[in-house]
Structures are given as C-alpha cells and as structure tokens.
Specification:
It is built from six helices and three strands, in the order ααααβαββα. The chain has 144 residues and is α+β, with helices and mostly antiparallel strands. Helix 1 crosses helix 2 (16-26) and helix 1 (3-14) packs across helix 3. The structure holds zinc ion.
Length: 144
Amino acid sequence: MSPDLIRYKFIEKFGRVEYKEFVLSLYEAFPLRDRLFFWQEQLIEKIFNDLNIPQPTIGEVYSVFNYCPIHDVKLNADIVPIIDGNKLGWALSYREKKKHFPMANVNAPRDLDRFKYPENVEILYCSICREQRLLNMPFPDTIK
Ligand SMILES: [Zn+2]
C-alpha cells in the first residue's frame, strides 16, 4: 500500500491536528528514536488494522510519515550544529516557530550546561519550513 494512502487514511481517521502532533513528535528527537511512544503505537496499530495490512517496523513508520505535516513536502536530511539550548531566545520566537515552521531544524538545541554532545547531528528538515523561517526570523536562535 502506498505511503500517500496510509497518511491520507491517518488524517481521515484522526484529523489534521492529531496528524500534525503525531508527525512532529515522531521527528522531534535527533538521532531519531528507535521505538514509538505507546500513544503513537496505538494510532499506528489502529490505522494498519483498518487498512488490513501488517503492522510496520519503526523504519517503515519513518518512511511512511517522512513529510512535513504543515507543508506536505518530503523531508530532507542535513547535518546541523548542536547549539546551546539554554541560550535560546524563546520568548520572542518559540510559539511562532512551532506554528509556522516547526521542521526548519537549522540547528539542534541541547542542554550544553549539563551534558556533552558532538558538534553536529544529522536531522531531517522541510525546505518550505526553512524558507518560512528565513522570511519570519532572519536572525540566529541564540542570544549572546
Ligand atoms: Zn514544512
């Protein structure tokens, strides 16, 4: 069965809001998680049962839902710098960012005060989210 049809059935059954929540949570962690949360598993189980097809592996879930839930374009891979999440300019941008370009992923904020990380990490991003981010927020995420 085509990934397009599976995504369509997901939206038809659970609605756009749930779909957006599901996809954003699926791709919020980098590196990608190697298993689903229980609530994600339940949604997947229902959809695949409805479609009468075998339950997918986690890799198959990622390849089916590999689209920006806002702009509906396929996600691309990139390598981005890990930045200090404790210095983010949250107040100004966080809500707008999550609403309009949640998958820009131009960097990966982490808690650098408490943990050590490599300099870069591979992420997935949406090209339209990145365009929107540039138009709406042409300044860096971090405050000095
Ligand atoms: Zn997007």
